[in-house]
Amino acid sequence: SYFVLGGWATQTLQLGAEQGQVPVALPAIDYRRRLVDPVLGGTVEFQANSLLIARRDGQDTQRAFAGARWDLRRLTGMGQVITLTGLVRGDVYHTDNTGLTATALYRGNPGWETRGVALGAVDMSWPFVGQAFGGTQILTPRVQLVVSPPIRNLNVPNEDARAIDLEDSNLFALNRFPGYDRIEDGARITYGFDWQLDLPGWRLKSTIGRSYRLDNEPQLLPDGTGLSSRSSDFVGRTEVRYHDFLKFTHRYRVDKSSFAIRRNEFDATIGSRKTYAEIGYLRLNRDITTVEDLQDREELRLAGRVAFARYWSLFGSGVFNLTDRNEDPTLTSDGFEPIRTRLGVAYSDDCLEFGVTWRRDYVTAGDSRRGNTFQLQFRLRTLGFR
Q: What's the Cα-to-Cα distance from 209 to each of 47, 201, 357, rounded to whole Å?
């Protein structure tokens, strides 16, 4: 079991955003406890959560919920891995100043609202192991059924589940929304497979899948997320690794109808722990115009570190906006705009770390102004002081 008490306040970096609309979350409480003894052969975990969100010039929200989850995992005689899941939860919300939220789907009803959540799922995977190409391969088909009754999603505000997007990481999630405020209801089947090939020094992993809704009820998922139709888009991930020297990861989402690439992302790293180079690229082509949090964008990320002497290293990084006016009509850039660059020198041994960094911001975003910043970092590793 564990208990977390926290809070946060931030300054906006979003272009055109007002600081008065940026929330302050305090307190944010989460408590979970897992029973030691099994219940009906499975594990039971209880959760209680509370959150207060306040805005100087915007909507205020208080949320509390309590729930329980039961999981039973079994291995059959033929090698299938079967997982049964049941979840129940009760939510209480209180909301003020809903009219100050521009997106109607995020508001909820003013005043007090309650909501019940129930969900059941069956998940089956079946790994097949064999020899291939001089190595070992594992092919694992997987299918999942998730069922939930209609849930009063629009009656409560949406504070933490806005950035919904179908990815390989949430394909088999019980709830594809990222937070607690929205729950994907109805009945759906998700299916796909994992494939892994291990060769001397090399590892290749790949995942692909999609989902299909069994009911035809209207959904609150916006067009362009990959989940708005009964049949979802295809999502996947491919990873290539050579020892600890080279790693390449590609993530993608392909439109189910036009086969257009809606998400194209890769990250590559080459080098050792002390000297390495990294490159990352992301392009979102979702064509979502109705939700402010899901705009298209394209960016390039570069980073590197070079060790010299015994404890010293030089490092640098940069983020570049490749989004043009065709992807976002509100922009004035030509498709290449530096956002932030860093350059620094660092020292690290068994006892302490320190470094000097020069950072340049090229764009004024929210309360963050363009210009140069110099940072000095110092850390005593044995004491955890920083």
A: 30, 28, 43
Residue 156 covered by a domain? yes
Helix (H) or strand (E) holding 249: strand 246-254
345 is a domain residue: no
pTM: 0.88
CB 367 within 8 A of CB 19: yes
Element at 348 (helix H, strand E): strand 337-348
CATH number at residue 67: 2.40.160
Residue 144 belongs to domain spanning? 2-295
pLDDT in tens, 141-186: 999 999 999 999 999 999 999 888 899 999 999 999 999 999 999 9
Is 296 in contact with 288 (CB distance < 8 Å)?
Answer: yes
188, 229 Cβ separation under 8 angstroms:
no
Tokens of 50: 């509370």
Determine the pLDDT at residue 216: 83
Q: For 6, which DSSP code?
A: E
> Structure tokens of 106?
């995020």
How far from 134 is each of 77, 178, 199, 262, 383, CA to CA, in Å?
Answer: 29, 41, 7, 35, 48
The DSSP symbol for 157 reads -
List all residues 6 or more positions away from 16 whose beta carbon is below 8 Å from its beta carbon.
none
Is residue 164 situated within a structural domain?
yes
The whole-angstrom separation of Cα 132 and Cα 145 is 32
Q: Report pLDDT digits (tens) over 115-131.
A: 999 999 999 999 999 99
Dist. CA 252–CA 261, nearest whole Å: 7
CB 194 within 8 A of CB 140: yes
- Per the structure, the count of domains in the chain is 1
To which residue do tokens 């509100």 refer?
A: 330
Q: Are 286 and 271 in contact (CB under 8 A)?
A: no
